[in-house]
Amino acid sequence: MSSIIRVNMTTHEIKSEINKDYEFLGGRSLSSRIVYDEVEPTCEPLGRKNKLVIAMGLLSGTIASSASRISIGAKSPLTNGIKETNCGGVAGGKLSKCGVQAIIIEGKSEDDKCYVLVITKDGYKLEVMNKLKYLGNYDTVENLYNKYGRKTGILCVGPTGERGLRGACIASSDSIGELKFAARGGLGAVMGSKGLKAIVVDDKGCNLITYKDKEKFIELAKDYNKKLASDPKVTGTYHNYGTTAIVKAVNGMGALPTCNFRYGSTEHVSDLSGEKMNELILSRGGEGKLALSCMEICAIRCSTIYPDKDGKKLVSTMQYENIALLGSNLGMKNLDQVAQLNYEINNLGLDTIETGCALGVALDMGYGRFGCIEDCMALINEISRNTPLGRLIGNGALLTGQILGCDRIPTGKGQGFAGYDPRALKGNGVTYSMSTMGGDHTAGNCFGSRATVDPLGTESQGELSRTLQIQIGTLDCIGLCMFARGPLFADASILANIVNYRSGSSFDKDTIWELGIETLKLEREFNIKAGVSPAHDKLPEYLYEEPLSPTNAVFDLTEEEMLKAIV
Amino acid sequence: MSSIIRVNMTTHEIKSEINKDYEFLGGRSLSSRIVYDEVEPTCEPLGRKNKLVIAMGLLSGTIASSASRISIGAKSPLTNGIKETNCGGVAGGKLSKCGVQAIIIEGKSEDDKCYVLVITKDGYKLEVMNKLKYLGNYDTVENLYNKYGRKTGILCVGPTGERGLRGACIASSDSIGELKFAARGGLGAVMGSKGLKAIVVDDKGCNLITYKDKEKFIELAKDYNKKLASDPKVTGTYHNYGTTAIVKAVNGMGALPTCNFRYGSTEHVSDLSGEKMNELILSRGGEGKLALSCMEICAIRCSTIYPDKDGKKLVSTMQYENIALLGSNLGMKNLDQVAQLNYEINNLGLDTIETGCALGVALDMGYGRFGCIEDCMALINEISRNTPLGRLIGNGALLTGQILGCDRIPTGKGQGFAGYDPRALKGNGVTYSMSTMGGDHTAGNCFGSRATVDPLGTESQGELSRTLQIQIGTLDCIGLCMFARGPLFADASILANIVNYRSGSSFDKDTIWELGIETLKLEREFNIKAGVSPAHDKLPEYLYEEPLSPTNAVFDLTEEEMLKAIV
To answer: Domain Aldehyde ferredoxin oxidoreductase N-terminal: where (chains A, B) (predicted)?
Structure first.
């Protein structure tokens, strides 16, 4: 059984332990469970009592495709409830190969040094690297590569995480040194508050992954990988557009956040679309690339490198949420503008969704003009310079709006909405409101369910959200990418058996979902103890009152309907 | 029976109504009851669904001394729970004489005009006075006096209330045009959010106060007035020092907030003391004055005018809380500095306690130097100029600390602590934490109870806080000043009978406290529905960990002890 590494940042001591109770847990089921077991629900999120938990998935480091996502949990400084945020990159697989089931970062360094946790086949140690202090994510990774080699996996925070800004995220390097982000909930601020700048993992010489039945596992994993690789969604959509394929569809539904969620569609949709991204990457060439994997084994390959006119890299990865929140939501007209904002926000170590929402609010209050890239870059420069206005925006949409006096703040449970206006995609409104995660894009995203539930209707939205919370939550608990769900949901016995063959559990196609259900229940219990729910299960008032063009929809679900979403 | 004036700021309609259910309610018992009955607990505090309720006391406008305080209630934008804040000034008595039991301000003006509610013997109307827009409190009152006469009573908000800053208060004019403040909880922002700049009341030709038994009332009121006027606390303390008499005592206990609650005493105590204030007012002469009344009938006369070296008025009224929060808490060295800050903050329409806490946090984070009046004036200038940093500070200590990254934020339930460090006066820690009001100075202030409960001890603090919450809460419900409590608590039958003779109720010396108890229970119920309690009943973590010099006390009460304070 793999072990848990416990790092006390107050004493700078590290120890390793094994917990039999956690034997069959991984990903979100493990990170949320440890937070539930160890973190005082009413503690200060950026204080020494909070803990940052990094948990590997149940299939992490194996040959199963898209299964090495890393799950990071803590009490969130944005929602004041529990938060789980997961991402790709190579650290998850490498940590699993090093025999690490989870890392618990606790306490808080009392000195002003910049710490890096280094994990190799020889063990683990905290090193001081003060030259990384307040360095942007890209330079941080470059410095760490120079010291520890380019085959390491890195998790790190940018200057905003070090400065405790609630919009901060945790970056995760991929195999070519590009970054993925455990973006939501401000967990970068939690990591930064502890004095930990980065975690470096070198799996050279390690392969400590164990199997209940390796032969059956490999057979089933190969079968699943093959099914996934031939899924038309994967080959047709993700390889060509990554996650940006849906821009036109969301715009067509009237749910694309535009100018601080004032409109549901933009006239610039063509120039912001996935089709345009694909066209530009192919026509501009150079460093531009489509269909990259973010982790060692992944058939989905939704990562991209978006180049400028001269073929020089602008940003990786251009994603749907970035186009929605940094593009249309800020009134931007083209993908070059989105890429420019995206790169800077990545480098500062902020969540693009939260920061896009916060920038939208700031523009709405007159701190710049919608559609003006210079004004937005000036606001981002305020964040770099750590000015009061910069700290405001870096702390997310809710605090930005409260301080600047905005009465249109697009947040759920204190967290900025993802790229779907809840008035025109009501199921997502339910998820933003009722899920344990707040305004999230993965916690139960109802986009794509139009065939079964009318996105503008008032019926079945609660049930839809609940079902998706459980389904995607279960994938989170295993450490699987949600884009791998095609073959797994088509035959859930694959999902159950692949987990069983790896870890010795005894799930079947019906009981595998209990992983998600149990985790969501624990999370909700934590939130209630933390004082977050149910009085905080409420969307902003303007959504109930202000019709959203072009559908003129308002958010009009009954409380009864909303309550159906509780797991 | 007097009537309730309901002002809809959305439609600009006003109507008058009578509610038999409220017949025996007044002050806090009425304002909190109306908020409980009419305000959706989860509504946005600065949105159209919140209501601002202004309620007259049960003895308001009569000859009973110190009994015409006005009670203002709403859902607070600072605590997100119910807030009652009361103050002196002449508006309360005058509104009672005009037959007004309460005013309910609801809705939200959708235009950008500056409205004034005018109440006279001829009725009530909303007038537009755009020249008052963003005017400071002192100029606002002067403008209103010029239009409506100097014998009117005025309630108004400064520019910070109009701008929705959560530290904003409501000013109330006294008989010489000086200002008292319904200071706590950010209710100035609620009034400002509705588009209402001021309420002017002219009671000329009105005396609509009714009595159950006028003769008995007058006889008992005269007896009470006489007792109060000869109370040594009144003649010895309030006439000479106002509320500033306790500076040395709190400093001696080690509970005087000093440099953002980092220390419990200051070396500058003599120059910040009530004795010094008395000496300076007497020696400087000129416009300086002691022992002024803030309302028509008041034997306590705790108001003062503090003059500069040339005898020119600097501020009225210099109070203990201002000396604590704007003086020692900011490292100030003398009363002239306190007076200068106090005047500017009054004029901007902010609560001096909340703003003193916010400024302390800002200085602690390096946005100025403790003890440097120029630095503090520069921060206040940021508020005047409505800059992001100014909006931050004007929004109170919690948001200031959260944005600037401070882990020492002196707040309870989101509201800045009053001038007593809870580590060295633990009963106040209980009140800041457990009362419905948060970090308040009147909701159950345990200063002065040293004879019965050791302020540093861990015993009996919950019970002490509870008793004081009920006692002072009951005075709030009647509209009586807490400094009048000497003769009233010595013989509570006076308290009961004077209310009975006025309104026809049938309280006795034991049951009169039910007014407070019932109100506190309603308030707590509102808070729980609003999602505020009990997970939010927690003081900041640093108080439990950082010893406070000179006593080296930490806050160390058990949860069991704290829970005893719940009414």
So the answer is: 1-205
Contacts of residue B532 in chain A, CB cutoff 8 Å?
531, 535
A47 vs B: CB within 8 A: yes
Query: How far apart (Å, rounded) are the C-alpha atoms in residues A16 and A18?
Result: 7
Nearest to A360 by CA among A333, A398, A386: A398
Which residues in chain B have Cβ-Cβ distances shorter than 8 Å to A47?
407, 541
Burial of A60 (0-12, 13-18, 19+ CB in 10 A): buried
Looking at residue A535, its pLDDT comes to 87
Quick: pLDDT tens for A126-154.
Answer: 999 999 999 999 999 999 999 999 999 99
* CA-based nearest residue to B146, from B121, B116, B124: B116
Angle at B354 between CA B260 and CA B242, to 5 degrees: 95
Contact list in A for residue B531 (CB cut-off 8 A) is 531-532, 534-536
Which of A154, A45, A87 has its CA nearest to residue A415? Answer: A45
Which residue in A has a C-alpha nearest to residue B392's C-alpha?
Answer: A403
Q: Is A405's CB within 8 Å of B391's CB?
A: yes
Contacts of B387 (CB under 8 A, 6+ apart): A388
Contacts of B480 (CB under 8 A, 6+ apart): B27, B57, B59, B66, B67, B69, B488
Residues A252, B162: Cα–Cα separation, whole Å: 40
Quote the Cα angle for A116-A119-A123, to 5°. Answer: 125
For residue B389, which residues of chain A lie inside 8 Å, CB to CB? 388-389
Q: Which residues contact B169 (CB under 8 A, 6 or more apart)?
A: B85, B157, B161, B181, B182, B183, B184, B186, B187, B188, B349, B350, B351
How far A162 CA lies from chain B's nearest CA (Å)?
10
With an 8 Å Cβ cutoff, is A163 touching chain B?
Answer: yes
Contact (Cβ atoms closer than 8 angstroms) between residue B448 and residue B455:
no
> In DSSP terms, which residues pair with B180 in a beta bridge?
B172
Q: Is A423 helix (H, G, I), strand (E, B) or coil?
A: coil
CB < 8 Å to B43, chain A:
541
- Residue A85 in contact with residue A415, Cβ under 8 Å? no
What integer pLDDT is reported at residue A317 of this predicted model? 94
> Which residue in chain B is spatially nearest to A531 when comparing CA positions?
B535
Chain B interface, mutation test: which of A403, A434, A526, A562, most B Cβ atoms within 10 Å? A403
Name, in order, each residue with C-beta under 8 angstroms of B219's C-beta and a sequence gap of 6 or more.
none
Cβ contacts of B404 on chain A, cutoff 8 Å? 388, 391
Q: Where are the beta strands (DSSP E) in A96-178?
A: 100-106, 115-120, 123-128, 153-156, 170-173
Compute the nearest-CA separation of A535 from chain B (Å).
5
Count Cβ neighbours within 10 Å for each residue of A415-441 and write b for 16 or more, e otherwise: bbbbbbbbbbbbbbbbbbbbbbbbbbb
CA distance A205 to B398: 50
A36: Cβ–Cβ under 8 A, 6 or more apart, which residues? Answer: A82, A522, A523, A525, A526
CA separation for the pair A337, A367 (Å, rounded): 18
- Residue A110 banded pLDDT, cuts 50, 70, 90: very high
Q: How far apart are CA A73 and CA A29, in angstroms?
A: 10
Which of chain B's residues have a Cβ under 8 Å away from the Cβ of A41?
535
Judge whether A149 is closer than 8 Å to chain B, CB to CB. no
User: Which of B402, B409, B545 is the mutation pick for testing A, counting most A CBs within 10 A?
Assistant: B402
* Alpha-carbon gap: A303 to the closest alpha carbon of chain B (Å): 34
Cβ-based burial of A488 (10 A; exposed 0-12, middle 13-18, buried ≥19): buried
Neighbouring-strand partners of residue B116: B127, B198
Taken in order of first residue, the domains within chain A and their CATH numbers are 3-201 (3.60.9.10)
ipTM exceeds 0.90, yes or no = yes
**H/E element holding B430?**
helix B426-434
